[in-house]
Each structure stands twice: as C-alpha cells, then as structure tokens.
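# step 3/5: fold
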Amino acid sequence: MCFNKNNFRMSVAAKRLRRGWKQLHLRVREIRMIAKGLASKDHPVDVHIIPMRRCNLACAYCNEYDDHSKPVPIETMYQRLGRLAELGTTIITISGGEPLLHPDLDLIVARVRRHGMIAGMITNGYLLTAERIQRLNRAGLDHLQISIDNVMPDEVSKKSLKLLDRKLQLLAEYAEFHVNINSVVGGGIHHPKDALTIGRRALELGFTSTVGIIHDGGGQLQPLRDEEREVYTAMRSMEKSSYARINHFQDNIAHGKENHWRCRAGSRYLYICEDGLVHYCSQQRGYPAKPLVEYTVADIRREYRTVKECAPRCTVACVHQVSYIDFWRGPQDLQPSGSVGDGQPQGLVQIQ
C-alpha cells in the first residue's frame, strides 16, 4: 500500500478540526457552569466519585488506594450519578484508585454526559492504549489528568516520564478531550527539577501543564524547601499555556503560609467513596459520611455554612478552586462540635 501524503494531511486536519470543535463546545459548557454556580448556592459544582478503590500502583505518598477492592457495580454507579444529577451537579471527576481498572468505565463516562454533566477523569495513565483512548472519545470524556511525579521511577513513585511518555504520545495522537499533565513538588519527591522537564514535555505535546504540592497524610500543608519553591515558581511561568487555576492558595502553601478562606467541601465539592458515602474530600474521609442517596439540599446548605477546621493548612487544590466561586459571599457561622476527619458524627454549633 502506497503512503498518500494528501490523505494523511486531510486526516490530521480533520482530527484537529474535530478536537477544536469539542474544545469550543466544552468552553461554552464551562461558562454555563460558572453562571449556574453564581446564580445558585444550592448545588454541587464538582464531585469526585470513586468507582474503583484498587490501583495497579503503590505510590509511597498516596493514601487513596488499596490492592484488593472490587469495582462498584455499574447499576450502583448509575444510581449514584442519577442522584448527583438530581442535586444539580455540573462536573463529575472520576477518580480512584485507578478508574481504568473498572470494566465499565466507558459506560460510566457516557452516563455522566447523558445527564448533561461535564465528565473528567484522573488516572495514572498506565493502562491507556490507542483503542482505550478512542473508546473514551466515543463515551464523551471532556477532561483527563495524569500526574507524573518524576523523570525516572524510584521507590516513592513509578509515575515517571520515562515509563509514561509513550502513553502521552498516544494521547497526543488520538485524544479528542482536554489533557492536563500535573507534576508535583514536595512530599518526598527526590528530584524537584523533574517537574520542569515534565511540564515542558506536556506543552510540547500540546497539553496543558500544572504543578501541585504534595500534602501530608491528612491533606495538610508541609512547607517547601528552597529548591522546591524555585521549581514551583518556574512552573508558574508556564501557566499561560495551562487551564485556569486559582493560584494564590498554592502560592501561600509554597511559602509555608496558611490560607484563610471559606471551604465549601460537603456543599459545592463532594467526595463520594466506593461505599457511596459523602465525604468532605479525599483527605478528610469520615465526615459527614452520609449515604449519597440520603443527601439533600438541606445537607448542602448546612455544609456551605460550616467552618472546616482543616481549611487553613489544606493543600487540596480542587476544593480551593470550587470554593472560590463563593469567596465573596456566604459567611460560615456553623462549626463542627468535634474534630473534622475523626470519622465520628458531629453536631453543629452556631458561631456568635
């Protein structure tokens, strides 16, 4: 078979046009999401949902996986997504564990889109193939994020550029959804400058690039060393090529400073574990720990007003970003009577 340059060019042009159209359509939906969030405080903006706790890796700093859990049955996932749609959720982020281990992941993504919600996913990327990426295209995935921790694998993390670069090339060739590559500093990462190499490679392949600060086991602030802060600052210079992020939270974290803000976890942001319970976030599992099927607008309104004791030293960026929608309104005048995150039911006390 002869190679036809004209056909190849037409194929590439068609792919770029299709990808561009999808990105434009997504931007319109994101603008609607923001408008809806500004118009009403009574619905979740972003929900992280776990269909699979098991992971194929075992990164030393991670507390969000195990090596034995079974996938959540697809009918159960459908019920949970339906309930989130009823609550008015605008974004569903599928996480884990490793979501690509779930045998019905494509059906989960498709159901998110059928409910009119934006579909995102966080994955370690190891299980991506050309065929798998094309299936995610057909399911309607909007966003995908891969966190890459180092250039060469080590005892802390196997999420390395050396092992994942071929997967990134496949995404560059086949993905019709937005791809972000998140590199990290802190948390025992041995070579902070690896983040710069990872970020540059992401931009070279046409993706966006972001940098995160790894938290401790409770999702709390651990100040960066001088070299780590230098790398973080250099990564910030790449942000003109990355999607919008709320950076002043991370800026303070990088310098060991606390943030004073109104965390809307349990309200604008929900974390749904594999057991179908609502938690504040991945690092504060245990409260309110109420079944999603029983979660109501009254719960959303209560948690919207509730002070989160862990907020000043929190490093969970997705909660920062979602809460920023309401930074200018909604004073918090309720607080838990116990310690957030201890897994015990807690009453609420009015702040005078």
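# step 4/5: annotate
The chain is about 35% helix and 15% strand.
# step 5/5: archive (pending)
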